[in-house]
Design a protein that fits this description.
This is EAL domain-containing protein. The chain is α/β, with parallel strands linked by helices. It has helices at residues 2-13, 19-36, 78-82, 86-109, 129-140, 153-156, 160-172, 189-194, 204-208, 217-230, 243-251, 268-292; strands at residues 40-49, 55-66, 70-72, 114-118, 147-151, 176-182, 199-202, 234-238, 256-258. Strands 1-2-4-5-6-7-8-9 form an 8-stranded mixed beta barrel, surrounded by 4 helices. The protein binds ligand C2E and magnesium ion (MG) (3 copies). One magnesium ion binds at residues 180-181, 201, 203, 238.
Amino acid sequence: RAKEQGKNKYKVYHSGMNMESYRRFLIQNDIRKAIQSEQFTLVFQPKVNLETYQIDSAESLIRWNHPKWGLLKPIEFISLAEETNLILDIDKWVLKKVCEQITYWKETYNKSIRVSVNFSAQHFLQRNLIEQIKEILEDTNVDPTLLEIEVTETVLLRSKDSVKQTLEQLKELNIHISLDDYGKGYSSINYLREFPFDTVKIDKAFIQEITCPQKHSRLIIESTIALMKNLGLNVVAEGVETIEQLNLLKEFKCDEVQGFIFSKPLSTNDFIRYVDKHKQNSSIIDSQWIKNN
Ligand code: C2E
Ligand code: MG
Ligand code: MG
Ligand code: MG
């Protein structure tokens, strides 16, 4: 859609610009406005603990309610925002909202839910990152142990020592640190040793291979999870959609599951309703698992 818009307008107004750069220009301009006029919104996807079947945590995911193009998913604008420093403003907006949300859930419903935010690699080039985060923590009065930051391995490919130092500083603030999308890229096991992660999230592409008969996929995933657990990491499986995947992950002692099998990302109100409903139903889920096993 963005492309079509860009193409039409380009023909009319911007004969000097090429289409791709004009499309970028349009979206990047819109992002600036969107932050000011609160067009972004957050949805929350539950992570279900496979031992207790409780929901102790969730991932925040951004959506853009664009005045012309409707509800946009991150794939339509995050990489464009990453080409400029706009991603820094977006993620900081998300971080602030999430901290406020954590505090709200705690104060209003007496629920301690740890919520993660996705942080693009650019943040790790910012000298004052830690100061900025500290300021948000103070402003929102959030319990930092309920805050989680997810980074992908692209962060780790940059200057290793400074990234490691930054992650350690985040840990000193008692923030939970996760490696996202494990198994999507090169995903060296060494990253898990070298950097101070609390959690590793296995990518949905990797999870989908779990039931595939070839390539020893099942064995590889089982051993990977065992290794991660032996390293003391909390293991989350992303993109779990089927009961077969769930059963295997339970058997492999994976700690938490995030996926459509339990829930899509939800609005704040739906999320709280889901947590309550899920609590009542967790025994049913458990017996269903036993039945299927
Ligand atoms: P991610 O961090 O790996 O988030 C998980 C993505 O998988 C989400 O897509 C979620 O809706 C989707 N998902 C969850 N369970 C299932 C499932 O069972 N099946 C399938 N097919 N998909 C599932 P979403 O919300 O479209 O986000 C895509 C990516 O955009 C995220 O991947 C993350 O890298 C990025 N992103 C999202 N929000 C933010 C943000 O606030 N800041 C930054 N920098 N990046 C963000
Ligand atoms: Mg993530
Ligand atoms: Mg992921
Ligand atoms: Mg990701």
